[in-house]
Amino acid sequence: MEYSIDDLKNRLQRLLESIEYHASKAGRKTDEIKLVAVSKTHPIEAIKIAYELGLKRFGENYAQELREKVNLANQFQLDIEWHFVGRIQTNKVKYIVPACELIHSVWRVEELEEINKVAEKYGKIQKVLIEVHTSPEESKAGVDLEDVGELVEKAQKFTHIKVVGLMTMAPFIEPERTRPYFRKLYELRERLRNKYPEIVELSMGMTNDYWVAIEEGSTIIRIGTAIFGERRT
Prior knowledge:
Elements: H1 5-25, E1 34-38, H2 44-52, E2 57-60, H3 63-75, E3 81-84, H4 93-96, E4 100-106, H5 109-122, E5 126-133, E6 143-144, H6 148-155, E7 161-167, H7 179-193, E8 201-203, H8 210-215, E9 220-223, H9 225-228
Parallel strand pairs: 1-2, 1-9, 2-3, 3-4, 4-5, 5-6, 5-7, 7-8
Cofactor: pyridoxal 5'-phosphate
Family: Belongs to the pyridoxal phosphate-binding protein YggS/PROSC family.
Protein name: Pyridoxal phosphate homeostasis protein
């Protein structure tokens, strides 16, 4: 299926206007909010169009797909800031670390160990977010709220990792009902910042609920469908 530049342009324009409106409603500036275009299952052609429309941050969920798209983007000389937003398989970290500015979905010590090992090999300090389980859904990944402080403390021993914030996924419910889950993450970040001032980012909000997340303090929203249309399988 072909991607229309007009379709993407119109969807992106509506999204940016919505971001501006809800940021203003919350007394925030739009430049406080980073937009990550989640391009999983969408081809490099769609990424090229979005890039030409001004998007520079792209997020992928699968390490192998990320690796392939990074290679294609480099061939087209696209200066993309890549984010990894999916569940981490430790044997695929070797594909994630070299490519990504930020890894959103870290919640196990084993992941930290592998990320640190690969980052050391590449001579980089890998920025990560700790994924937090804020909802009652058992299927959601993430460390429990009461255990986040302990994991952040453990992360300090890794010399090639920097924890710069937190991430969560709200349940797929009526958007207004997601507010308490985002608020929990905001409040947790505020407590952690007293000890770890570098923890500033809040990655929360997707196509279904990003405007609520913005009103609750999100600094990074992860948007796929509202930019690219329905996901390709």
